[in-house]
Design a protein that fits this description.
The chain is an alpha/beta fold and 339 residues long. It has two domains: 162 residues, Response regulator (Rossmann fold), CATH 3.40.50; 164 residues, Rossmann fold (3-Layer(aba) Sandwich). 45% of the residues lie in helices and 19% in strands. It is built from twelve helices and 13 strands. The strands form three sheets. It has a seven-stranded mixed β-sheet with strand order 2-1-3-4-5-12-11, sandwiched between helices. Strands 7-6-8-9 form a four-stranded parallel β-sheet, with helices on both faces. β6, α6 and β7 form a beta-alpha-beta unit. α5 packs parallel to α6. The longest helix has 19 residues. The protein is globular, with a radius of gyration of 21 Å. The termini are far apart.
C-alpha cells in the first residue's frame, strides 16, 4: 500500500470519527472507493455519501485509486484488513474490480457497485443513474436543434458499461434519422479513461479530415466536452457547433452560460449519495434496499439495482436546477463566466 493511499484512508477515517454525530461503539465501518478526482463529480459523490453515512451513525474510509485498477484492488484489500463491513465502489475497471467483490464475499463483506456495474461477480446492490436515458436525452436535444447535418459521437471508455449504455441511447434516437439520410454520423469513437486530452486530440483530427462542416458533437461527459470545445475554439467554431455533456461540472456550467456548450445531463448526486448510504446500511442490518428496485444482469447474477433519473440542463433552466439544488452557486457559475 502506497503512502498516499494510506494517508487518504487515515484522513477520511479521522474525519468520520470527528464529525460523526453517533457515539455507539458498534457503528458500521464502510469503505467508499473512488477511481479518481480528475472528474470533479467524484469528490461530490464522496462528500454526499460520507455525510449521510455519518448522520446514520457509520464511519467511512475513503480511497482514491488514481485511475489504476491494480491500485484499487490493493486498496480494497487494505480496507478489508481494516475491518470494513461493506465496500461501496466506483470501479476503475468494471471487469477487474470483480476480484474485489469475490474476495469480499468470501469474507462476508457487502459490496455495492456505485455508478458503474461491476461485471461477472456477486453484488449486493447497484446504484446509478439511467445512462441509456442520458444518451437518449442528449440525442433528442440535438435532433430538436439540428434535425439534419453531420454528427460526431464521442463516447467514454469502452470498458465502462455506462459508456456503452449512453451510446445505445444515442443510436436508438438517431437511427430513424440516419436511415433517412437526414443525419450522417461522420465519426464515432470511444475515449480511453474518458480523457479530456484525448477528446481534444480526436476532435482536432475530425476537424482536419472532414471537409463538410460538423453540426453536432454528442459528447458523453463534460470533461471530454471541454476537450472538444477547446478544439472547436482553435478553429473559431466554438458556439457554432452543438455540444452535449454530462455531470454538470462547474466548468461545463460556465460554458453553457458562455454559449460554447449547449447542455449537460444533470445527475443530482446528493440524491445518489444519500440513497447509496441509506441502502448500504439497510443491507448491513439485513434489511431489503428501498426504492424503485429493478434487476440488471452482470454476467453472474441479476443484481438488485436502483436507477435514478437524469435531466437535461441548459441555459434556460440552470438556475431552477443546478443552482436551486445548491450543486453550484450562481456566483461561481456567472461571475467566472463573465471574466
Amino acid at each position: 500500500m502506497k503512502g498516499k493511499s494510506i494517508k487518504s484512508i487515515i484522513c477520511w477515517s479521522l474525519i468520520g470519527i470527528l464529525l460523526s454525530s453517533c457515539s455507539q461503539s458498534d457503528k458500521f465501518l464502510i469503505g467508499f472507493m473512488v477511481p479518481n478526482y480528475q472528474e470533479a463529480r467524484y469528490a461530490i459523490d464522496r462528500d454526499n455519501f460520507v455525510k449521510r453515512a455519518q448522520e446514520l451513525g457509520a464511519e467511512v474510509l475513503v480511497t482514491n485509486a488514481e485511475n489504476d485498477d491494480n491500485k484499487q484492488i490493493a486498496q480494497a484489500r487494505e480496507l478489508m484488513n481494516n475491518g470494513v463491513k461493506a465496500i461501496v465502489i466506483i470501479a476503475v475497471n468494471q471487469i477487474t474490480a470483480a476480484a474485489i467483490a469475490r474476495e469480499a464475499e468470501s469474507k462476508d463483506i457487502k459490496v455495492v457497485a456505485y455508478e458503474r456495474l461491476i461485471q461477472n461477480c456477486p453484488l449486493d446492490l447497484f446504484i446509478s443513474f439511467d445512462h441509456n436515458t442520458a444518451g437518449r436525452l442528449m440525442a433528442e436535444y440535438a435532433i430538436n436543434k439540428q434535425p439534419e447535418g453531420n454528427y460526431v459521437i464521442i463516447s467514454g471508455d469502452k470498458t465502462d458499461k455506462n459508456a456503452e449504455l449512453i451510446e445505445q441511447g444515442y443510436e436508438a434516437v438517431l437511427a430513424p434519422h440516419v436511415n433517412t439520410s437526414k443525419i450522417k454520423v461522420v465519426f464515432n469513437t470511444f475515449i480511453e479513461d474518458w480523457s479530456p486530452e484525448e477528446a481534444h486530440v480526436v476532435m482536432q483530427k475530425v476537424l482536419n479530415y472532414n471537409i463538410e462542416p460538423i453540426n453536432v458533437v454528442l459528447c458523453a461527459n463534460d470533461g471530454m466536452a471541454g476537450g472538444v470545445i477547446k478544439a472547436l475554439e482553435e478553429r473559431g467554431l466554438a458556439g457554432k457547433v452543438i455540444v452535449t455533456g454530462m455531470d454538470a461540472e462547474l466548468s461545463a456550467c460556465r460554458r453553457i452560460i458562455e454559449g460554447t456548450q449547449n447542455i449537460t445531463i444533470y445527475k443530482p448526486m446528493t440524491e445518489q449519495g444519500k440513497a447509496a448510504a441509506e441502502n448500504t446500511i439497510k443491507i448491513l442490518k439485513g434489511e431489503k434496499p428501498e426504492g424503485n428496485i429493478t434487476y440488471i444482469n452482470n454476467g453472474k447474477m441479476d443484481v438488485p439495482s436502483i436507477m435514478l433519473k437524469p435531466m437535461v440542463v441548459d441555459v434556460k433552466n440552470i438556475k431552477e436546477t443546478i443552482i436551486a439544488d445548491g450543486f453550484h452557486s450562481e456566483n461561481d457559475i456567472f461571475n467566472a463566466s463573465s471574466n
